[in-house]
Design goal:
three-stranded antiparallel beta sheet, alpha+beta, protein transport, elongated, 57% helix, Immunoglobulin-like
Length: 805
């Protein structure tokens, strides 16, 4: 081991060439041994840097740069780079400039020391020395260096040497990016470079003009006059014969062609005259470019982007869409992906042209690549229309049955939206949604259940068909919670139609009362049932007590069992239903009658309501209040219960059998018996005659939060917060947190949901109860948190005043 250490030390003498040092470093067996070799070599390099007369400076700096490439510190070589740049020898200048580009940046003070050397070398008689200075300035030039040396670069842009003009043009691009104001300095020279024949100079000129046009609208207008020159240059490239110097896979200088097409796209955007001047050229490029090679596809793709971005002719846009359609048939998945990305951008404006490639796009749903599959799904959903809804929905439903888990929610949501917009019939609409719930019921949005319930309620002619179909689905699978919830609701509402067994739309099935109750009991007892699902099943069981005749005692037994359930929500339902059986049996038929038609977007039935909140009992506080009043006021027991359930159609008179003179409690007359039933099943307050004033307290990033308040008492205030999402992407994990002064008591009730669908399809509401006994100045700070497109957002807003009803 010691002998190897001695041999290594001898091998690493200061005169060892770069190749020998690399060989010694690579032969190190451990990282510790490699680190030791580099430390000894760096020590030797430092020692030689200190010598006044050092003939091997470039040799030592080259070794130091290799050490820097390995990730070891090499900052002590910065001043040596400055000294070597000032050397008159080209070999030392070359290594010095290379070291400056690697070891220096604009944040280093040492970089300012080379400004004068670069300025002198820009005027050097040797073109290669000038090239070194231009490359260094373009690589690490700071804003101060760019301002000082910009006149020199402008002078070199007008030089006679094509090699220098090419380097100067690219250096000017860096200067414009660093100091925008210097763009005007280079504009005249850049315009004159378009007359050059050298492709390198033309490439640099086009890049420079593109940078200038993107940063200044005035410069853009000035360079629109160069469109004919650019068209001529591009035509020369397209129709030119074979040139070994510029040919790449049969395409003449594709790099220059792509740059020119990008510049034409900028110049033709929102300008009809410039667009007309380049239409013929774009058609020529689109038809004459070979699409069998990747190089040709790159040129065609830039041509397509240019055609779609300028004010081009309709025929040319169809040609561009057809090129993208050919890309979809390419074996390269990257090409297919960019084709679908481009089609997604134009499907709104060129819908018919994209429709011609619908079959190819649908075939991409079977691709193994997840990114291609996602793009194909987005594009397929965008292509759904009233004319192709049946055929497209078959493909989408087939895709849903086998798609990856991460795409199911997006596919289900897209299918729901398409079915709602283009459904050819109500029955088809219901069948489609039920198919989705059967396939991916666990991946649908919360508002799917209330929306489907609303759809079923409004199609009275299909009640019998729907309840039979849902009953069969419930028997076959109870794992899909959304499907089970809708099935339980329909059985509770239309159980009499199911028991009747007469249905013209489907094959009749003889179902007994025991069969239906067995199915509901299975849901209640299943470990797969969520608390909300059990609530649906218990309510459906209770509703069947008015729709069947022979098994009422069994229903009473089922309901009483859940009166001691560990789940508070389910226990509350059971206790209230038991009260209906024992004390208010004469009202049970009226309370549990069939739901009326639900008006879409009516108060209390917004599409954005969460399923778990849309079907919820009245608040526990009201139950306690009723239980307190019942023993003290026997004559008003019925009134208390009606008040608990939400009001009656007309004021109720005292029960004559009781004979008490206790005054009757006032009861709201603003709602019907159907409205009472809605309150029983939804935990909803009676609709007020006038709405409370609403103010917008937050509007940022597409999320809007409005606030309305209603004074409940001298010190009590109820605040309603409503959130809406106007962006094109769904928002999840939406939460609201509130803080008030210490003397104010705050109670936040459960929100209506935690997701905000895109484009305002639904809203989230949250009630906040405030008690201000000390009458302090009321303020509230609200924290908004949500996740959008995989990124978490959080913001805070303060409310200093509250609108009162």
């Amino acid at each position: 081991m010691l002998q190897r250490f001695v041999n290594t030390s001898n091998a690493m003498s200061p005169s060892v060439p770069l190749q020998e040092m690399i060989r010694a470093i690579r032969s190190a067996r451990t990282q510790c041994e490699e680190r030791g070799v580099i430390q000894r070599e760096c020590a030797a390099i430092r020692a030689q840097f200190r010598q006044a007369d050092n003939g091997g400076r470039s040799h030592n700096l080259a070794k130091l740069l290799y050490v820097h490439m390995l990730g070891y510190p090499a900052h002590f070589g910065q001043m040596e780079c400055v000294r070597m740049i000032a050397s008159p020898r080209y070999s030392e200048k070359r290594v010095g400039y290379l070291g400056a580009m690697m070891l220096l940046d604009e944040k280093q003070d040492a970089s300012l020391l080379i400004t004068n050397s670069i300025k002198n070398d820009l005027s050097h008689s040797n073109q290669y020395v000038q090239s070194l200075a231009l490359c260094t300035l373009a690589c690490m030039g700071s804003a101060e260096m760019c301002r000082d040396l910009a006149p020199e670069i402008d002078r070199l842009l007008r030089a006679s040497n094509s090699y220098i003009k090419k380097k100067a043009a690219l250096c000017a691009v860096h200067i414009v990016r660093k100091v925008h104001d210097l763009g005007e300095l280079f504009a005249p020279a850049a315009r004159s470079l378009l007359a050059e024949k050298n492709h390198g100079v033309l490439h640099g000129a086009v890049v420079l003009i593109t940078e200038l046009c993107e940063r200044s609208p005035e410069t853009l207008e000035r360079f629109r006059k160069t469109v004919p020159d650019l068209v001529q240059i591009m035509k020369g490239l397209v129709i030119s014969g074979y040139s070994p110097e510029h040919d790449v896979a049969g395409i003449s200088d594709p790099f220059l062609q792509v740059r020119i097409l990008r510049l034409l796209r900028i110049l033709g955007r929102n300008n009809e005259a410039a667009s007309d001047a380049m239409n013929d050229l774009l058609a020529q490029v689109a038809t004459n470019t070979d699409s069998t090679k990747t190089v040709g596809n790159a040129v065609l793709y830039e041509t397509v982007l240019t055609v779609l971005d300028i004010k081009s002719e309709s025929g040319l846009r169809v040609l561009a869409v057809n090129i993208l359609g050919r890309f979809l048939l390419n074996n390269d998945r990257n090409i297919r992906y960019i084709a679908m990305t481009s089609l997604q951008r134009i499907v709104g404006t060129d819908h018919n042209a994209v429709q011609r490639h619908r079959g190819t796009i649908v075939d991409c749903l079977k691709d193994q690549d997840a990114s291609v599959k996602r793009r194909a799904l987005e594009l397929s959903l965008a292509l759904v229309s009233a004319t192709n809804i049946r055929s497209m929905m078959k493909e989408l439903l087939l895709f849903l049955s086998s798609c990856p888990l991460e795409l199911r929610a997006q596919a289900a949501s897209g299918i729901f939206n398409a079915a709602e917009r283009y459904a050819p019939s109500q029955r088809w609409h219901i069948d489609t949604i039920l198919h989705v719930l059967t396939t991916a019921g666990g991946d649908v949005r919360d508002e799917t259940v209330p929306n489907l319930i609303q759809l079923i309620t409004n199609t009275s002619e299909l009640h019998c068909y729907t309840v039979h179909k849902l009953y069969r689905a419930l028997l076959s699978d109870i794992s899909q919670q959304s499907l089970v919830q809708v099935a339980c609701w329909c059985i509770g509402e239309y159980g009499d139609l199911l028991l009747r067994g007469e249905c013209q739309e489907t094959e009749p099935v003889q179902v007994t009362e025991d069969d239906v109750l067995d199915a509901l009991e299975t849901v209640l007892q299943s470990h797969m049932s969520a608390p909300a699902t059990r609530g649906f099943a218990l309510t459906a069981t209770m509703k069947l007590s008015t729709r069947i005749t022979d098994n009422v005692d069994r229903i009473r037994s089922i309901v009483s069992i859940y009166g001691s359930c560990i789940d508070v929500e389910l226990q509350q339902r059971a206790v209230e239903y038991n009260a209906l059986f024992k004390k208010y049996d004469h009202m049970r038929a009226a309370v549990l009658e069939r739901m009326p038609v639900i008006e879409k977007n009516s108060p209390g039935h917004t599409n954005g309501e969460s399923t778990r909140e849309a079907v919820k009992e009245v608040q526990p506080a009201k139950v306690k209040q009723a239980e307190t009043l019942l023993p003290q006021q026997p004559t008003s027991q019925v009134c208390d219960l009606l008040d608990l359930l939400g009001g009656s159609e007309e004021p109720l008179q005292p029960n004559p059998a009781v004979g008490s003179t206790v005054p009757v409690l006032p009861i709201s007359t603003s709602s019907t018996a159907g409205g009472d039933l809605l309150d029983l099943l939804g935990g909803l307050e009676p609709t007020p005659l006038t709405s409370a004033p609403t103010v917008t307290v937050y509007e940022k990033g597409g999320v809007t939060l409005t606030l309305s308040s209603e004074k409940q008492s001298d010190s009590g205030l109820t605040v309603t917060l409503t959130a809406c999402n106007s962006t094109d992407s769904d928002i999840s994990s939406f939460t609201l947190q509130a803080a008030v002064p210490k003397s104010v008591q705050l109670h936040m009730k459960a929100p209506s949901g935690d997701s905000l669908p895109a484009r305002g399809a639904a809203k989230v509401t949250q009630m906040v109860a405030l008690s201000n006994p000390n009458k302090v100045n009321l303020k509230m700070r609200i924290r908004i948190s949500y996740t959008s497109q995989g990124s978490a957002f959080q913001d805070t807003v303060q409310v200093d005043s509250f609108p009162e009803h």
